[in-house]
Write a structure and sequence with these properties.
Helix content: 40-55%
Distance between the termini: 26 Å
Structural class: alpha/beta
Strand order of the largest sheet: 1-2-3-4-5
Strand content: 5-15%
Number of strands: 5
Length: 159
């Protein structure tokens, strides 16, 4: 299938895809702020440049878009018809990079919380996010943080 846009139009569309301050990221920030949990933006030079960093808690939060990071939900399973080989390879590279970054952070003693875009549509996600972040703090206080990772997906990942 050929692209419905000219190369210039496609370039303009892709330039509008934001990497920070996205809707899902803003929603996660709002949940944490309402719970009184402070965070920093920008990744602080950590592997994978996490969306949110809580240095005192040794917790990082990644907010992943389902399509871009190859989630196993309906939106993440969608495959573009145009240039399909490129997109499937790109998404696989993203998944491999995400796994490497999560492992590097865990090895350095950081707890990694991943929030999927589709999960933000399910009820109770704010409470689950706050519980995950606060649970990581409790784990850190016990000294058993190494290898701690949490993923927040909808209860049934078929959205």
């Amino acid at each position: 299938m050929t692209d419905v846009f000219t190369p210039e139009q496609r370039s303009a569309v892709m330039r509008r895809v934001r990497g920070r301050d996205t809707g899902p990221e803003m929603k996660v920030r709002r949940f944490l702020r309402e719970a009184g949990i402070g965070y920093r933006l920008g990744g602080c030079g950590l592997p994978g440049r996490p969306d949110l960093v809580m240095k005192g808690r040794r917790v990082v939060v990644f907010v992943h878009g389902c399509f871009w990071h190859g989630h196993d939900c309906r939106r993440g399973a969608r495959k573009p018809a145009a240039n399909a080989d490129y997109w499937s390879a790109k998404i696989e590279r993203n998944r491999a990079r995400d796994a490497r970054n999560e492992e590097a952070l865990s090895d350095d003693g950081w707890a990694v919380v991943t929030v999927w875009e589709c999960a933000l549509k399910s009820p109770g996600v704010g409470e689950r996010l706050v519980d995950a972040v606060q649970g990581c703090q409790a784990t850190a206080l016990c000294g058993a943080l190494s290898g701690s990772a949490s993923s927040i997906s909808p209860p049934d990942s078929t959205n």
